[in-house]
Structure formats: structure tokens, C-alpha cells
Amino acid sequence: MISAVLLALACNPKDKVAVSTPDRNVPEYAIVIHGGAGTIERSHMDEATEKAYHEALNAALDIGEKILQNGGSSLDAVEMTIRYLEDSPLFNAGKGAVFTHEGKNELDASIMTGADQKAGAVAGVTTIRNPISAARAVMEKTEHVMLIGKGAETFASKAGLDIVDPSYFFTEKRWQSLQKILKENAEKTELSEDEKGNKKNGTVGCVALDKNGNITAGTSTGGMTNKRYNRVGDAPVIGAGTFADNATCGISCTGHGEYFIRYTVARDVAALMEYKGLSLEDAADYIVNKKLVEKGGEGGLIGIDNKGNIVMPFNSSGMYRGYARPGERYTGIYKD
């Protein structure tokens, strides 16, 4: 029985990977974010770097929470929160994106609304400043779900989005990471690396529940350092990296994308809730700490259900993460 397995996998409350609330006390709104999961060690993080990540996570939460507090939509909250994370060079999305084998920055993003389960995504774009906004435009202004490459860029330009020269995405830190891997093993792809040697799956994401009970989820990424042949991971794939349904939950993932695609991780959490009647915490814990581990997949996810419960499980040593609900705020990096 899955339920027995889930009980055995119950999370330590100190890990801050799940935040529950009694049904009688459903919060007016909730928002949760991540900035990538991976090998993030306390010993590899100095005080200044750690502070910078906490400040960035809190600034992102400020943006989304203000929208939700003022009665704004979860869709607006998710888009604007992720735009901030895309503009920060601390994270591997947008301005902080890693380089491909050819020395380019190829960006992917997706967004989905739980009220109607509409979705939009872009992949392999190189000139769109904020891919998450392009994903929203695909959802709202076309009959499609995913646009890629030059076509997506042409559409984004016609939609009036901010188009930049590819040089906008250049950061010295990411460039040196590519040079290092090309020197060591030009055939290998690698997680993004910060100044202290921490390696993480390069993704940012946000899930929000607004005052109208609507859930939205979004994810954005620069992919893996030294990726080749226009490789695309799970971030823009609906059901793999992003999923939302008001009846169950919203999910945004971060991890080794190939595993999250193969096992439709985001949708799998919602499916366990829908078909098995599991709670968000139990479903997410089973997928991340049981199924993915057995399959060899590393990473984590964030999620919110329609009662405002929040999960942030991960099977790596760390995940940049945070959440806010009325009167509550948390940001974290490490397992503890």
C-alpha cells in the first residue's frame, strides 16, 4: 500500500519542507518559490553569499505577496515573482542563465493556471528578456501551448515583449563555468555552479494561491552548463516541470530534467491526490523521496494545494526556497 510507504517517509518538521494548516483556517493567499535544488553545502557558502540568496528570495516573495495581499491574481503574482528571479544573476534563469556548448544562453519557461488548466511555454529562446512573460503570452494570445526557438522569439517581439541582444544574458561567472567544463570534459553537461562550488539544477519557480482560490504555477530555467543540440529539460514541459489544477494543487519542479520528464513529476503529484486521495504533503514526499530516488533522479519541487498547504521537498543536499502566507514568512537553503 502506498499509504504505508508514505507514513514511513514522513518528513522531519525541522526540515521545513511542508507547511500545513487546518481546514478551518485556510489562508487568504499563499505563495512558494524555489531557486534550484542541488549540491548546496553549508561549508561551501560564506556569510555574504548566503545573505545575498536570502535577500533575493525575500525580495521575490515581497513582489508576489504584495500582489496577492491586494487581491491580485495568482497568475500575476507568479509571473512577476519569476520575472524578478529571471533578472537576478544569482539564479540560473534569464540574466543568470548558464552557457551551452556553443557559448549561448538558451532559455525555457512555462506557466499554467489551475482554474481552466490553460498553459503556455517557450523553449530554446535567446533574445527574450523574461521567458516567463513569453510563456504567459503563448497561453493568452495563441491557441498553442509551446513555441520554440526563432518562432517563439518572433512571436514575443510581435506581442510587445522586451527583446534584448543575447549579450544581455552574459555573466562572467557562468562563462567561466563553461570554460572549466570544456577544459575538463567537453562532452559532459553539468549543473550550474556558484562562486563557492555549490552545484544546483538551474531552475526558478513559483506557485501561488490567490484570494479567489485560483492556483497558478510557473517555472523558468537556463538549463545545464555545456548542453548541446538544443537540449530542453522539464521546465517548459507541462506535467513534467509545471502543473496546476484548482481541484488538487500547483507544482513547480527543479532537478535533473530528463527524470522529471520521464516520470511526469509535476502531474504525478496531482494525480496521487486526485486518484488516490493523498494529501499534498504525502504525494509530494512519495514522488520526491521514494519514486525519484529509486529511479536515480535528483531534485525537488514546490507546491500549494487548494487549502493553502505548502510543500518544498527535495532529495538533494539543498534547495533555495521560501514561502509566504498571511503573517508567515520563511526562506531556506539547506536540508535543516
Question: Beta-strand percentage?
Answer: 15-25%
CA radius of gyration is 18 Å
Number of strands: 15
Would you state the CATH class?
Alpha Beta
| CATH homologous superfamily placement | (Glycosyl)asparaginase
Task: Write down the secondary-structure element order.
Answer: HEEHHEEHEHHEEEEEEHHHEEEE
Topology:
Blueprint: H1 2-8, E1 18-19, E2 30-39, H2 47-69, H3 74-87, E3 107-113, E4 119-125, H4 131-141, E5 146-148, H5 149-158, H6 172-184, E6 192-193, E7 199-200, E8 203-209, E9 215-221, E10 242-244, E11 249-255, H7 257-262, H8 265-276, H9 280-295, E12 299-305, E13 310-311, E14 318-325, E15 328-334
Parallel strand pairs: 4-5
Antiparallel strand pairs: 1-13, 2-7, 2-8, 2-14, 3-4, 3-9, 6-7, 8-9, 10-11, 11-12, 12-13, 14-15
Descriptive tags:
single chain, 336 residues, alpha+beta, Glutamine Phosphoribosylpyrophosphate, subunit 1, domain 1, ten-stranded mixed beta sheet
